[in-house]
Amino acid sequence: MLGERGAANAGWPEAARRALEVALRAGVLAALVALIALEAAQVLLRYGFGAGLAWGRDVGGLLLFSLAWLGLPLLWLKRAHLSLSLWRLPAGVERLWDRAIDATALAAGAALLVFLLQAAAAFRFIDMAALGTDASIRTWPLIAGTCLWNLAALLNLVRPPEPAGG
To answer: What is the pTM of this model?
Structure first.
């Protein structure tokens, strides 16, 4: 019975990976479409009517940050990030190396998250008049992206090893 339950639960990391990938792709697409629409509206308003959106620059920056910090965990999850192989390693050593990199990324992401939360707390006292909020909003895409990056690294860590031929 335990073997059957273990076999049934073995697919949860892959299901979580697929769900995260779909959500990240949708987030990247939404951020890109919103950024393009905002910039098009800014150009139309500025050159067509001589007036821009007072908050356009701030929101555009947030969308650009969101785009980058949603893309990072997506690329990490798919192992499509930039990498450079200096040495040819045996398949088993390469898998071990990949897991070590994921573990290092997980630790680095946790440390980065601590500093980002401290920065968000410090920015609470700076007002962004155009948006009617405090400047801690600038750290939100980075905080969310770091959490998602940690999740992607964790899902890569718990992923069962691929067969030696694949």
So the answer is: 0.82
